[in-house]
Automatic annotation (TrEMBL):
It comes from the Bacteria. The keyword Oxidoreductase applies. Keywords: Oxidoreductase. This is Nitroreductase family protein. Residues 11-180 form the Nitroreductase domain. The keyword Oxidoreductase applies.
Length: 211
């Protein structure tokens, strides 16, 4: 793939994750090695990566994710309910909502669950520049997802389990000063029809010099 193709066809994969095909640990480690080339504030590299493959551990995390997702699906902000009065967008939102629901009930069956974490100096997150702090981790997570795509793996960026972050931390045995950022299901995918998503025109969101 060209860089442009990789960047425009790395999509959230939910319904097309292959739940029956094991993923070699070597592929995950290769994707993570690429992920670690991302920038890190002050070159601290305070990131940690929890790779969950044990069936019982996956099931426990999956249960938390399912509970959080079902609560989200009942809310007015659920993706499947957005833009209901806009025919040009409603169908897309319905498909997104359907795939969210599908993954909610199967997260614990995904062969690999990656939980990227950030270590801080204390159990409490520091006040102030949260954007700068998380910027030392999130680009590396996206690097991982791009690398996984290039290696024939599908991923999806999810964060809903963080509604039960403490419970997840207990399942994973995380120290109090290690904070979870996301939950990235990773598996081989089925089909090859990945394509760029329909987005708003750049002109509608571009501001030059000032709003």
């Amino acid at each position: 793939m060209t860089p442009e193709e990789l960047l425009t066809t790395t999509r959230a994969v939910r319904k097309r994750l292959d739940l029956s095909r094991p993923v070699p640990s070597e592929l995950i480690e290769k994707a993570l090695t690429i992920a670690l080339q991302a920038p890190s504030g002050s070159n601290r590299e305070h990131w940690h990566w929890v790779v969950v493959t044990d069936p019982d551990q996956r099931a426990a995390i999956g249960s938390l994710y399912r509970r959080a997702t079902h609560e989200y699906m009942a809310s007015s902000g659920f993706a499947g309910k957005l833009y209901a009065d806009d025919p040009s967008r409603a169908a897309v939102q319905h498909r997104v909502g359907s795939s969210v629901s599908y993954l909610a009930d199967r997260m614990g069956e995904v062969p690999v669950l990656l939980i990227p974490c950030l270590e801080t100096s204390s159990a409490e997150l520091p006040a102030g520049n949260q954007a700068g702090m998380w910027a030392s981790l999130l680009p590396a997570v996206w690097n991982y997802m791009l690398a996984a795509r290039s290696l024939g793996l599908g991923t999806a960026w999810t964060t809903l389990h963080l509604a039960y972050e403490e419970e997840a931390a207990e399942v994973l045995g995380l120290p109090e000063n290690v904070h979870q950022a996301a939950l990235i299901p990773t598996a081989y995918y089925t089909g090859e029809t990945f394509k760029p998503a329909v987005r708003q025109p750049l002109a509608s969101v571009l501001h030059v010099d000032r709003w």
